[in-house]
Amino acid sequence: MKKIIVAIDGYSSCGKSTMAKALAKYAGYTYIDTGAMYRAVALYGISKKIITKDNIDEVRLRTELDNIHIGFIKSGEQQHTTLNGEDVESKIRTMEVADGASRVSTIGFVRKHLVALQQKMGEQKGIVMDGRDITTVVFPNAELKIFVTAAPETRAQRRFDELKEKGDNVIYEDILKQVIERDYRDSHRSESPLTQTADSMLLDNTNLNKEEQFELIKTWFNNAVKE
After folding, report:
1. Can you give the pTM of this predicted structure?
2. Pair 50, 57: CB distance under 8 Å
3. What is the pLDDT of residues 83-97, one digit of tens each?
4. Closest CA to 8 of 149, 130, 151, 169
């Protein structure tokens, strides 16, 4: 059976990563979380005070890019993100880092740097990669493209439940506002805006559970590898 590239794009808190991980496990493919790569850049920038609440020092960030080494390791059944050799999986999942990642993702030289790394990772195919510009920029010729969406209120509730389960003190209205703001920023940025390509399979999981959506993407995958 031939190996393919599965490219998944979509809005924040749609469950793209969960879906991509499940498909990668089913197919025996490598999963690459590009959102985690942008989060790692943001975490580095925040820790070095390159990124603050009101500003990003782009001159410093550009000079520091070659000092930011991002990797992925297995931790039990889970894949964790590393930053300069440190497991930072929990650190990159905060609201502060998520906001920072959305902001650095609008910067052209950051995107160019990470896209080059992502394309290198996919040279041998047999990967599932999710993000915001995977179907449009990173792998425009991917054999299977999926675009994931859901109602903002549904996504905010999912994010709220996830953070509350971790013990974070969060307010639903604040998360909904952040989701809507991030949607706008992702869709309207000048560098690689989030958009659905004409050849992407649309998956609206507002009213789907994980099992139902996995059956859909499994069918799409099986059809793609037969073609």
Report:
1. 0.83
2. yes
3. 999 999 999 999 899
4. 130
